[in-house]
Amino acid sequence: MATINAEIVAIGSELLLGQIVDTNSAWMAQRLAEIGVNLFYKTIVGDNAGRMREIISRALERSDVVITSGGIGPTEDDLTRELVAEVTGRQLVLDPQLLQQIEERFRKRGFIMTRNNEKQAYIPVGAIPVENPNGTAPSFIVEDPRGVIISLPGVPFEMKWLFEQRVIPYLRDTFDLREMIVSRVLKIAEVGESSVDDRIGHLIRTSTNPTVGVLAHPGQVDVRISVKTDDVDKAYALIAPVEEEVREAFTHHVFAIDDETMEGVVGRLLKAKGVSVAVIEDLTGGMIAQHLQRAARESLAEAVIAHTEPPLRRVLRHCRHPDRVEALLQDDAALTEELAFGIRIHSQGDLGLAVRAIPDPTRTTQNLSPGKTYMAVADGQRIHTREYNFAGRGAPDLTRVTMYALNLVRRTLEGMVGVG
Fold first, then answer.
1. Which of 4, 187, 314, 363 could form a disulfide with 256 if both were Cys (CB 3.0 to 4.6 A apart)?
2. What is the pairing mode between strands 211-217 and 128-130?
3. Residues facing residue 66 across a β-bridge
4. Distances in whole angstroms, Cα of residue 152 to Cα of each of 9, 22, 184, 228, 367
5. pLDDT tens digits for 225-240?
6. What is the rounded CA–CA span in Å between residue 374 and residue 386?
7. Is residue 222 within 8 Å of residue 186, measured between CB atoms?
8. Ordered DSSP codes for 297-311
9. How far is residue 305's CA from residue 302's CA, in Å, rounded to a whole number?
10. How far apart are CA 176 and CA 286, in angstroms?
């Protein structure tokens, strides 16, 4: 089986200026890994002929496959086809079929094709034309003695379709690719990256096939178990004992696998159990309610954003101790519990979720900023609580609070709160 080394060249000055984030390269990198292609370099270059010539030439010298993204449109600064032709020592020639396809696409959309669009029908002599049914920029493949150059559009949905439908089959056939990388991702909540490493560090250090890696996000840590193989069933057989060991290390903290999300897991549980939930939150400004609404719109009974005292007092009319409201307003932990109870009664929902975050006013850090965050879920029988020593206004902290709040709902629904 062949071992193929690939390189991605993302083209466009807007990428260098930060006007657009290069998500194309990250997506292609993942897909290349899944089919067993090594990716050793990713480069971003602006719409400059000299620098493009240098980057594409260097890529072709050191990689078996060079994939360019962007620069094949109709404008003056779309230079990819010209530079690929130059680097591979070819002339650009008009492909009549590509021209006909472009003209037909304009006619079907009711637009008049301008003359500069004809430029997109020119490809290097001997190149393999690749029709783009989702746009007006055809792609092409140049097979050079040094390697293969595949030029794709920069528009993400066009690029992804062509990559899946044309590029992957081409790579499999041309290079006899049978190996693939099969992965199982276990998603863990409420355990930090260092603690994850402490529990399964021996797997990370000693595993070869499968390999084990860890990736941290705000509010969750992913453990990826990957196997390189030519057989999917064999891959999962190799993954199974390692997955079992990871699950034993983290038990109920494992909330999802692979493409599942906390939002999706909570939504599925709410729907399966026929349970509604109401939420009152402050610093998160509706982020928790938004996730719950996306998870299960019909299960969101009510959402309140309480930055000031009046909404707190309205909900506290339904708390267990309405005669102690003034004292509760001075005790954030007790207040959060009563808000969870009160919002449940007020909304006539099955669950009440309350989240209060009090950041340190002297700190402006964006991640794990000092402060206190209190959470409570009332389920009609008891109130489940959590308390954390962070509360920041930055996106990482807001995401983390939202994840932890959803996880508390998950564990309440699963009947697992208080375990471990």
1. 187
2. unpaired
3. 7, 149
4. 10, 14, 30, 27, 37
5. 999 888 889 999 999 9
6. 6
7. yes
8. GGGEEEEEE-SSHHH
9. 10
10. 51
